[in-house]
Amino acid sequence: MIIKRKIAVAVVLNLAIVLATMAVILSFFMGNKDAFIRSGPQSFRFFTTDSNVLSMLGSMIMIPFEFRILRGKSKSIPRFALILKYIGTASVTLTFFTVMFFLGPAFGYDVFLGDTGIFTHLLSPMLAFYTFTLLESDWEISFKNVLWALVPTLIYGAVYLTQVIFVGKANGGWEDFYFFNTGGYWYLSATVMFIAGILVNLLLRSLHNSTYNKLSVIKRDEEKVFEW
After folding, report:
1. Could you write out the DSSP letters of every residue in 185-202?
2. Low-confidence spans in the chain with pLDDT less than 50
3. Are the C-beta atoms of 89 and 58 separated by less than 8 Å?
4. Residue-wise DSSP of 59-101
5. What pTM did the predictor assign?
6. How many CB atoms lie within 10 A of CB 183?
């Protein structure tokens, strides 16, 4: 019963993540503008949007499997689905920490938490973090998965570096909207973000596996009660 209650809450929160993310992205294609984004296609230049989409996809994948558990059709979530949820959660959690500890203090939280930013930078990341670390713990996360969860950050970093540094705004590239090349120190920013990505992924893994170990004990106890 304890496990099913957790799964029921996870379904509700995953649905909230999916609906909120869809609404935010749709709003960009319907003329909504925030401090940085001026159009729907342009929004995908930002890691905020990309990480939230990954998180949304992770939640979408989890929902049908969680419904199967609630209906008694399955006992656990497939490992691949949980890993995909981990990758999305890791990406959006990095977005959260970047805003909370770098962009927010440097340029003002009102810029990043106003309008749709309240969802993409704060609420959706927190819901993803909560569901993954405390509610969805059917499998342990290995260190290999920590590295897989870093892939979206590395890909985006390579694209951002190319567009901002090697192409440049004057030649049709991107402006440095994350201010990572301030003073020409892009290589320091890249190193910090790489380390931050690793630490975030390790944090998620540690919290998730801790819950997994506790739930394993609860499952065994519930099975003993049922057998009795």
Report:
1. -HHHHHHHHHHHHHHHHH
2. 225-228
3. yes
4. HHHHHHHHHHHHTTS-SS--HHHHHHHHHHHHHHHHHHHHIII
5. 0.91
6. 8
